[in-house]
Amino acid sequence: MAEKDPWDFSEFGAPRAGQSAESDLTTSDSGRDGGTGAGRSVRAADSGFDALSDLGTAHGPATGALAVAGPPLTLLGISAAAAVIGLLLAALLGALPALAVIGWVLAGPFAIGVLALYTTADTRRRAQPIYVAPNWLIAGYYACLAVCLVGVIVSAIRIALWVGRW
């Protein structure tokens, strides 16, 4: 009997033309049955999955057009506007305690909260296949954060001066 090629793995691959996906293979267990060559029937199953099948295609497995994602500039604008309004209220009209507190809330919790929403939405959008952001975005983000910080400090000083006069 002819020896089987040890490098022939054809029984483990996809079925060839004219061969069904599930076929009966006969193997010889010459070592186990005393060299009689009696074969046993083995049922081979092929899932049909080919991990390298999409390598040759230019478009890949995805269908449809890709959308271009960008940063949520509206949220950044709302945060910057709230910080500027809070700073102006505290700096110009902060002698009135109610306006100093309103300025602190606008420049602090509100503006920083909206900036946190911006960061969350921007992170989600950066995970998209195509993301395009303007060059000034990082500078705008840090400028908004700086205005928030200055607004909180100015309004906190105004509130402290008002409480100190009590």
TrEMBL record:
<protein>
    <submittedName>
        <fullName>Uncharacterized protein</fullName>
    </submittedName>
</protein>
<keyword id="KW-0472">Membrane</keyword>
<feature type="transmembrane region" description="Helical">
    <location>
        <begin position="73"/>
        <end position="93"/>
    </location>
</feature>
<keyword id="KW-1133">Transmembrane helix</keyword>
<feature type="transmembrane region" description="Helical">
    <location>
        <begin position="139"/>
        <end position="163"/>
    </location>
</feature>
<feature type="region of interest" description="Disordered">
    <location>
        <begin position="1"/>
        <end position="41"/>
    </location>
</feature>
<feature type="transmembrane region" description="Helical">
    <location>
        <begin position="99"/>
        <end position="118"/>
    </location>
</feature>
<keyword id="KW-0812">Transmembrane</keyword>
